[in-house]
Each structure stands twice: as C-alpha cells, then as structure tokens.
Amino acid sequence: EVQLVESGGGLIQPGGSLRLSCAASGFTVNSHYMNWVRQAPGKGLEWLSVMYSGGSTFYADSVKGRFTISRDTSNNILYLDMDTLRVEDTAVYYCARGGRGGIAAPLVDYWGQGTLVTVSS
Amino acid sequence: DIVMTQSPDSLAVSLGERATINCKSSQSIFFHSYNKNYLAWFQQKPGQPPKLLISWASTRESGVPDRFSGSGSGTDFTLTISSLQAEDVAVYYCQHYYSTPWTFGPGTRLEIK
Questions:
Q1: CB–CB contact A111 B95 (8 Å)
Q2: Under 8 Å between Cβ of B17 and B85
Q3: CA distance, residue B37 to nearest chain A CA (Å)
Q4: pLDDT per residue as tens digits for the range B46-67
Q5: Residue (of B41, B7, B38, B2) closest to B22 by Cα position
C-alpha cells in the first residue's frame, strides 16, 4: 500500500529555516516523480517543486533559491529544505507522488496528509 | 508560466442536478506529439488532501463515479457532475502538467442548494 507521511512542520520565526520530511512506503522515491505542494490557510493549492526519478529538480518562482528538494534513497524519504522563511510561506505542505516516467510522470496520484508550517514572530 | 483560471468561484446546485465547472489555461496545453491535453481535475474535501479525479482532460481515474466527466481541449476545459450527490461537496481544482511550473487553478467551491 502506498503511503506518504510528512513531518517537520511547526512554528518558525521569519528568516528561519526548516526541513520537511516525507516518508514513503509501498514504492521507492527514486522511481517516481516526487512533488511538494502547499496550501495556505483557506486558500488554494500551490505547486512548489518536483524531483524527477532521474534526479532533476524544478521549482516555482515563489520558492526558487530558498527551498531545496532532495531525497534519501536508503531510507526512502523525500525532503524539502526551506530557508529564509517568510510569513507568506505559512501553509500546509503536502508531499505528492507522480508517475514513474514518460508522459504520465507529472500526474500526481497519491498525496500525504500534509504538515503545517507557521511562520510568525 | 501557464496561468490557470476557473469559473465560477463557487457554485450551489440541488441534489440530483448537473454541476459544471470551467477551467481555462493561458496557453494551449495540448501536446500534439501525443494527442493529449495535459490537464487534471482534483477534488478536495475539508481536512483532506486532494484526490485525482480526471487526467488527460477526460480520463476518469479508477474508482471515480461515472457521474464525473471531463471535456475540452486546447485552452478550455470543463468538469461536469451529471447528478450531484451530497458527498460531492468539495473544492475542485484543475491543474496543468504541460510544463513546469505545473500550476493549479484557484478552485471552485461546490455546495448543495
């Protein structure tokens, strides 16, 4: 059974750093496109970043240069390192699995339950 | 970047009636080489993560009731719920996956009238 469990959220001051983790089971993170998507309180979904199965990474302009996606294949964990956090980064952060490759790879088929990050002084 | 818009922002429909949600992309998301529209529809219920309903603009995912259907091509797309059920109350999002960033529409809130 595919499962994604995010952790690492919490309250952080503006300018601070945080690392989110997404523990995957039922598949391997390096065999699929893996995404981070966030949702500010009461707002819509915002795609943030993807790591392709081959290792390439892409980011939304809103987080480029501040956030870094990575993975630990030994422990089957996806990470999101977040630096220089801003109040507007407050959101539930979801880890989401894409396809294995080919044209269907960007399609997200499984989501975690999310972890809440609150940036406030 | 491709911008996705949706209409209406919210919608109230009587049980058993048809609900129609529109999605528009700022440029075509039809990939000629594969003859496919790179558009997905997601359903998000309160307190839950989104759920993939439809891919490739019109392909219903396994387990999704057949009252849900997707249509459209190029830049204009529609999600239709043919006969609204109480469990369909949710926010619906379209998303393109044509090129990064894979942006979402702002969402349409669907309620019971």
A1: no
A2: no
A3: 11
A4: 999 999 999 999 999 999 999 9
A5: B7
